[in-house]
Amino acid sequence: MKKNIIIAAVIAIITFTNAVYPQNNFKGNLTLNEAIQLALKNQPLINKAEQEVNVAEAKIMEQKSFDYPNVEADISYARIGPIPAIQFGNESFILAPANNYDAHVSAGYNIFDFGRKNALLDLTKSYKLTAQEKTNYIKDELSYNTTKLFYSILFLEKSLDVKNDQIKTLESHLDVTQKKVNSGTATDFEVLTTKVRVASAENQKVDIENEITKQEISLKSLLGLAVDSPLVLQGDLSLLSMPINNDSLLELAYTQREELKIAQDAQKSIEQQKQVASLSDAPTLNAIASYGLKNGLMPNLDVLRGNWVVGISANIPIFNGNRKDAQIQEAEANLNANDAQISALKRKINMEVQQAISDLETSKAKLKSTQLQVEQASEAVKRAEVSYLNGVITNLDLLDAETSLSEAELLHLRVIFQNVINAYNLKKAVGDVIR
């Protein structure tokens, strides 16, 4: 349940946050590492998680305070009436003064409680550990989302370059074809067909530009930058090599995944809760001591005199309505539920690791074929250019060859991008830290 709440909060903040911080003045180029650091610095959810760690630390300090004596000072004044007295013949003996003063310092210390105090301290420490793991989980999610947006923009920018080159080539063909029509060596059909291709390529360019704008808005929001902030990404779509071994990667994921750590921390917390519950009816032994000044002591009732008390008290619970048994049963039920959650998490992690490995291997396999397509399409363009100059093929045939080359380049670029993303997905699946 706690994990679901954490995930929901992370997604909500990452998707919808529009907070803008003083860092909005950021200008200049931005590397992937700088983008990740900026996201971690400007995300309010990180600050919230870190404050929860501070709260847990304060609770630990509070719990440790019970290791020390509890010292209190009390000062009181009371006026009573009627004044208690004993009549003996004609004499009256006053038993208490009308004005009563009392000032004393008291100390109490828990001598023995069968480990209840230590059990509560261990429980509080487990809460701090969980808060720290939640912080790490949120940081990982932010880092990977930043990485995906960063490389998505790089991919779209390179796709835009390919599309611009294609448009330039088409416009050049359009100019040549128009001149041929004017000289009577080409038909209007070739001009119209080329114009259609130019318009189609320009529409595709507009779509790419719009997607870049949307991705940049998402990235700026994630980094806490204003929408109009300049953003120039420094990086390249370079292939990532990652050793693949199913067994070792899965074992690594079980060790590193923050979700599993949170669930395991919760397991320890519940075990501590059960321990605390089992000690809820244990006797406690306390020492008390007090020293002060007061009046009302014989033989002179109005004189302030020193007085002291030293003693030992024991508290022995006898019956509390079976509360202890109910608390233990509740803890055991929570343990069983958390065991089931851990099993489900391990199954989910196993699936994500296997899927990430499959995706990465598939994208690697596509690299060779798409590279071959680019090489073949490039060779086809060269031959088509020669044939076009010799009058063997028409301008439209040459355009077909050049369009095929552009499409092959875009496809290869997409496969490279997918390979990078798949590599990072595998890193995420095994719980690698990239910040």
Task: Give an account of the 3D structure.
- The chain starts with a helix and ends in a 5-residue tail after the last helix.
- The protein has 435 residues and is α+β, with helices and mostly antiparallel strands.
- Strand 3 and strand 4 form a beta hairpin.
- The protein folds into 2 domains: 2-67 and 115-281 and 325-430, Outer membrane efflux proteins (OEP) (Up-down Bundle), CATH 1.20.1600; 70-112 and 283-316, Outer membrane efflux proteins (OEP).
- A 4-stranded antiparallel sheet has the order 2-5-7-8, with no helix packed on it. Strands 1-6 form a two-stranded parallel ribbon.
- It has helices at residues 2-16, 32-42, 44-64, 116-183, 188-223, 246-256, 258-278, 323-389, 395-430, and strands at residues 29-30, 70-79, 85-88, 91-94, 99-112, 232-233, 284-294, 305-315.
CATH T-level fold name of the largest domain: Outer membrane efflux proteins (OEP)
The fourth-level CATH homologous superfamily of the largest domain is: Outer membrane efflux proteins (OEP)
Count of domain modules: 2
What is the level-2 CATH architecture name of the largest domain? Up-down Bundle
Q: What general form does the structure show? A: elongated
- The rounded distance between the terminal residues' Cα atoms is 27 Å
Structural class: alpha+beta
Give the spatial strand order of the biggest sheet.
2-5-7-8
> Helicity range of the residues?
55-70%
* Strand coverage percent: 5-15%
Mean pLDDT rating:
87
Number of helices: 9
Give me the count of strands.
8
Low-confidence stretches: 1-25
Tell me about the largest β-sheet. Answer: 4 strands, antiparallel
Order of helices and strands: HEHHEEEEHHEHHEEHH
Rg over CA atoms: 39 Å
Under CATH at level 1, the class of the largest domain stands as Mainly Alpha
